[in-house]
Amino acid sequence: MNGKRIGEIDYLKCVCILLMIAFHLVFFSEKYPLAKQWVYTFHMPVFLILSGYLMQIEKRPSEFLRAMAWIFVPYMVMETGYVVMSAVLPVRDKVDCLSVGLMLEKLFLHPMGPYWYLHTYLLCGLIYYGVFHWAEKMRLVSRLVVLGTGYAVLADACQLVSLPNALYFLAGVALRRSGMTFTSFFCPSVWALVPLVWLSADMANLNRFTLGGVAIVYLVASVLLSLYTVIPAGIRRVSDYVGRHTLVLLVFSPVFTMLSKGLVPLFMFDETGFCFLFVAMILTVTGSFGIAWCIDRVGVSPYFWGKKQMLQPFHPK
Fold it and tell me: Which SS3 state, helix, strand or coil, does residue 2 take?
C-alpha cells in the first residue's frame, strides 16, 4: 500500500466508528435492541479485519515498538480516566472501590469500555510482529497457523483477549499477506443486500462469533463498499476525513457519550430517540475533534500521540 490512503477503507472506518458511537448512547440503543444486536454483529469485526490488514510490520523493532507505545499512551490515559469516572458516575459498569491493583488489572488485563479494542490491537499486533519476524523463513500458511495458535493461547490460557476478536484480526493479516487488495476480496456489490437481509432475519445469525455472523460481516462490507462511489463527493470527503481520524473518536468519544446522558431529559418528548441521537452525535464528534485540536494547539500532541500534530487539514474541495 506504500502509505497511500485508500478512500474505501477510510469510508468503512468512518461508518463503523459512527455506528459505535451511536450504539454507545444508552438512551438511543435501549430503544432499538435488535438494531444494536445487528450492528454489533459486524462493526467491530470490520475494524479488527482492517486493523490486521493495515498494520505495518515492515519496520525495525525499535520503530515498531515506538509506534505501539504511542497507541499505548492515549490508551493508558483514557482507560485510567474511564475507570475513575466509572467509580464516580452512575454508569452501568460501576466501579465500587478504586485501588492501584484494580487500575493495573483494568489497564493490562481486562479493560473497561470501548478501550478493549486498543488493548486487543496492541496485544495482537505485538504477537503478529514477533511471529512474522521470528518465523520469517516459514511459508505463509505456517506462519499464519503459528500466529493463530499464539492468539489461542492469549485468549484461552491467558484470557487477555476474545479469541473470535483475535481471529478477525488474523483474517485481516491473512488478507494482507495473501497479496489481495481489500476491495478485491470484499467485492463491492449491491446484490449482497439480498443474502444479507435473508441472514439478518434469523436471530441466530446476529452474533459475530457464528458462521452466519461472519457472513454478515462480509456482506455488510460489500454492500457499504458498493455505496462508496455513488455517495455525493462532499459526503465522501467528510467520510474520508473522519476515517483518517478514527483513533481520535475512539479515544475521546466515551467522554461525550457519558456527558450526553445529561441531555436525556431534554429529549423525552421524542419517543424515537433520533433527535437525541442527532444532537449527541454532533456533540461527540465535534467535541472529540475539539479536544484533539486543543491538544495540537497547546503542543501536547508529541507527548500524547507521539507526533507534532494529530489532526490533518480538511480540504472541502
Answer: coil
